[in-house]
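hey can u run this one w/ zinc ion bound, need the structure tokens asap thx
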Amino acid sequence: MKAALWQSVRNIQVQDIPVPQVQAGQVKIKVAYCGICGSDLHEYLAGPIFIPVDQPHPISKDKAPVVMGHEFAGEVVEVGEGVTNVKPGDRICIEPIYHCGECASCKRGHYNVCEKLGFIGLSGGYGGFAEYSVVPASMIHLIPDHMTWEQAALVEPAAVAVHAVRESDLRIGGTVAVFGTGPIGLLVIQAARAAGASQIIAVEVSPERQEFARKVGADVIVNPKECDTVETIRSHTGGLGVDVAYEVAGIEQTINAAILSTRSEGNIVNISIWEKPASIPLNGLILTERKMTSIIAYRNIFPQVIQLIANGQIQALELVTKKIAIDDIVTEGFEALTKNKSQIKILVNPQP
Ligand SMILES: [Zn+2]
Ligand SMILES: [Zn+2]
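ok here u go:
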């Protein structure tokens, strides 16, 4: 079967590899769609970040080259011994987290902060950029009949946004600023709206992405190149600042602006993974008792996110800008996302 493998930085290759065999406790999936994620792009441009190169990942036991892709959905074609939660023919999406199940975090159900945290399609295993994948049965979630495959492939990134909003101090009627409107920022806008935000301010420099922010429900667009971001956000919130600011850009200036644009005792949520350390104004936190929250991935939320998308409360399909074949994954996928800000979410169909 064809699969896209990360070999090294700037080197992803579509190769013929054997179809994986299902083992006890595992499920084999015929992949319908797999989205290209911002973290896949990081691995392509500046990796390895999550991809194990020297030592195998402690849970997947795998290392580079790895089959990429963690945002995927498809049909169950075979189940291994002992699997009872799904059967062949079921339509499902994948929660791609590897966790040990034994550390203190896992024991209290917070498996997204597991000591051995990993992701299928990054930390090894059979990722979704392939005709077939094999995953542990615990990663499987059933989807409703009326949910499309495209919607199902968007559940994983939407889960990041929903987790961020749930972990934040947002209450119905609250005001929000979202810094950076790539795929996750756009989903945060939708999740905040679904959670009852009364005003959503999007901070974005790219005109193409400003357009997407407007389309998914931002009330105000602020372009930091054209104005003082903090002052402008204050002016839209009666001089106070927003209740919650979500940082999804991973830029020092942006996290600074996010902190200073919240009200006194406001909440800043760090969703970005940082390529290098950032200097932040700690007095901007302490002198007004602002709170900084950080989130990674998601936990215990997939069934609810599936419903939010299936119900239309999160319009995930608004993000899909292109569907491509696996043979074109580098040129039409990774390179297109690198060069063209009007590309948001590209879905790969790995079937021949
Ligand atoms: Zn992702
Ligand atoms: Zn653990």
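The mean pLDDT is 97. anyway lmk if its weird
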